[in-house]
Write a structure and sequence with these properties.
mainly alpha; two-stranded antiparallel sheet
């Protein structure tokens, strides 16, 4: 009977400590003097057995200067605490002391082992693994500070959490514009205030989920790491699971597994806890034993458990052979990709091709894959905006440095070297065009143009035909080399595609845009329904580089109504009018969703370019407009 009684005493102590902490933490809302009550009389009844309380997120401690107070009109309402149901009475024969016959007046705590009390205190501590003074606030989340290129933190300070959540959650992640992708990634990574009525952890989860849909695994992981593990909500736990898997780091989930996600019952969290047990350095192989039980119970597919066993086995030094079989698998999931990469396995080619761009976005930045596999994936991810021109050049430089370069990618790395170092312009241009290949695959062409951006900028203006000039300009502008592109303004033919690219990409208006120039551009436009001409007009109007009468005349020739309004256009115009760059960037990303530029309308581009320019993002506006003219 001694052990049960001790457990009852421990439960009473925990309940007493919990209630004391709650009363101490709760701030009175009454005027001074009205909340004073006489001390309650001590109860003669036994201490009740505590009812488990739902998990509550601890209040974060802010160390940075607090933001400006929000107006009372948008402040979150104060909610009264939920009523607590009275606990059920204990059985009459239950004792409350460690002895069967307690002496009158004896203190029950004296009969408890001090070590047990210490254990109870430790078990009732908040779920944190860091000291209170170093915990980060949830009022401002993000890893890209404004001084490092992020957007102003206060841009989201007064925004409605419901509005922002609806906006970001309805974005699929694929954008028609590479520069639109880069801009959206920038705003999602910025250190921004938590919108009104939203939990800071959920604010991080919302942005991380969109980054994952965009193929930005590293940025998503960095964002979820901005929240202390003890503050994680269910949504952020799920985002962290996907982020760590997409970055091939399953062990990164261990702090979350030990804290807020300790009670998650889903199969992926169950297997993750077994993996973390292996990385905890425990003696023997309890982790593999747990995974064996999971296999017998069939809580997940055989492949998923085999991948977990292989990763856990590498952690605890066992020499158990694990053979991963892909025969019955017809699809790749984030768990399978992440665990396969973490164990140095590349999924079968048939599954990789079936997964398409989703796999390429993750594989292009995975350092454990072969350089050839990463280069193949880069032909997708660079076009989307995940990889920069510098990252692409570094990748090909690694291939060229191999003693035995890949049979396919080694010659291409040599061509890139020729594109930079050949003596004659014709040889450099030939190497660049060889890397571009044919234009049958627009995504591959766009990625190769990103690869050759700096080599294209080394070509002297006026040494190539206008058709090649348009591709060279598109290449150098994919890396933002607008000053190099502006050097071509005096030599390109007025009304050509190269002229249109320079007209919107240059840092300032270089020459008047006439109706004759626009008419020549339209006559050479081979895009469906003269879409390229409409996008050029939209870019020029948004940048303020064409006079209103010329714009109206050309709009009539194209049959466009640039003054047409929609709920989206009104929203982005209002955001620009309030000078909110973060909201403008998010709405611009919403308006640029699609697989290619044929999904964009001139009206949408006009509002996007104009709004970005109005809030101080003119460089991004120019690059988006130039990309529209170059890739349509």
């Amino acid at each position: 009977m001694k052990a049960p009684r001790l457990r009852l005493i421990a439960a009473g102590l925990l309940l007493s400590a919990g209630l004391t902490g709650m009363l101490a933490a709760q701030e009175s809302l009454l005027p001074p003097g009205l909340d004073e009550r006489p001390a309650p009389r001590p109860r003669a009844t036994p201490s009740p057995r505590p009812t488990p309380a739902p998990h509550a997120t601890p209040t974060p401690v802010a160390h940075a200067a607090p933001p400006a107070p929000r107006p009372a009109a948008v402040a979150a309402p104060v909610r009264a605490p939920a009523p607590v149901a009275p606990p059920a009475p204990l059985p009459e024969d239950t004792a409350v002391t460690a002895n069967a016959q307690a002496e009158p007046g004896a203190d029950p705590i004296d009969a408890i082992d001090p070590a047990l009390i210490d254990q109870l205190v430790q078990s009732s501590a908040p779920k944190f693994d860091i000291p209170p003074q170093t915990r980060r606030s949830l009022e401002r989340i993000g890893f890209l500070a404004e001084m490092d290129g992020g957007l102003p933190s206060v841009s989201t300070h007064y925004l409605s959490g419901d509005y922002v959540s609806a906006l970001l959650s309805h974005m699929q992640g694929q954008l028609v514009s590479r520069w639109g992708h880069i801009l959206l990634r920038r705003v999602l990574a910025s250190r921004l205030d938590t919108p009104v009525g939203m939990n800071g952890a959920d604010w991080a989860a919302l942005r991380a989920d969109l980054l994952l849909r965009m193929g930005e695994a590293d940025a998503a992981r960095a964002l979820v790491q901005e929240v202390d593990s003890g503050f994680y909500t269910r949504a952020l736990e799920d985002s962290a699971m996907e982020s760590y898997l997409a970055s091939a780091d399953p062990a990164g989930l261990c702090p979350i597994d030990a804290l807020t996600a300790a009670d998650r019952a889903e199969w992926n969290w169950d297997l993750s806890r077994s993996i973390c047990l292996a990385f905890a350095g425990s003696e023997g192989s309890p982790a593999l034993a747990q995974l064996d039980r999971a296999m017998r119970r069939g809580i997940a597919s055989k492949l998923d458990i085999l991948l977990a066993q292989k990763f856990a086995g590498a952690a605890n030094g066992t020499h158990r052979a694990i053979t991963v079989e892909w025969g019955d698998v017809d699809t790749l999931t984030s768990w399978r990709i992440g665990l396969a990469f973490a164990t140095g396995i590349e999924p079968p080619e048939a599954l990789r091709r079936k997964q398409g761009a989703g796999y390429a976005m993750v594989a292009g930045r995975a350092p454990m894959l072969s350089l050839g596999s990463r280069a193949e994936a880069a032909d997708e991810s660079a076009a989307a905006g995940v990889l920069s021109s510098a990252a692409m050049v570094d990748l090909y430089a690694e291939i060229a440095a191999l003693q035995e370069p890949d049979a396919i990618w080694g010659p291409r790395a040599a061509q890139l070297h020729e594109a930079y170092t050949a003596t004659h312009t014709g040889d450099r241009l030939a190497a660049i065009k060889a890397l571009w290949g044919d234009t049958s695959d627009p995504v591959r062409l766009a990625s190769r143009e990103v690869l050759t951006a700096y080599a294209a900028a080394r070509i002297e203006p006026g040494t190539v035909a206008d058709a090649d000039a348009a591709l060279l300009l598109a290449s150098m502008l994919s890396a933002g080399l607008d000053a190099n592109a502006a050097r071509w303004a005096p030599v390109v033919t007025n009304g050509s595609q190269a002229w249109g690219i320079v007209a919107v990409a240059a840092q300032a208006k270089l020459a008047p845009v006439t109706g004759a120039m626009l008419g020549s551009f339209k006559s050479a436009d081979s895009s469906p329904a003269s879409l390229r001409s409409g996008l050029l007009l939209a870019g020029l109007m948004g940048l303020g580089r064409v006079d209103p009468q010329t714009a109206r005349d050309f709009s009539g020739q194209l049959g466009l109504d640039m003054g047409r309004k929609s709920r989206w256009s009104q929203a982005i115009d209002q955001a620009a009018g309030s000078h909110n760059p973060a909201l403008v960037a998010m709405l611009a990303g919403y308006g640029m969703q699609g697989a290619n530029w044929t999904r964009m309308t001139p009206m949408h581009l006009y509002h996007i370019v104009g709004a970005l320019r109005q809030v101080g993002l003119e460089a991004e506006a120019r690059m988006i407009a130039a990309e529209a003219v170059a890739r349509t």
